[in-house]
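Case study 2.
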Amino acid sequence: MPHYLVLAIRKPGFDEAAIAPHLAWLDDLRARGLLVLTGGFSDRSGGAYVLHNIASLAEAQALVATDPLALTASSDLTVHEWNAR
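Prediction:
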């Protein structure tokens, strides 16, 4: 099964209140075995996370659409099928 790299880039006017729900959402993904790695960029422009155990790009995109960063329109989120080794 492939991995999915998600890039989350903050929009102008980013709402800091979105961070705590986003981190809780990531913790839930990790508990469900769907999250491999996550972290913010040192310049605070956004971050990235890697999903796995997901059957398709469409399924990964649907899951990412439930990220609080997407729901609050705080960040632009893009999902890439990633052939990691």
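The chain has one domain: 3-82.
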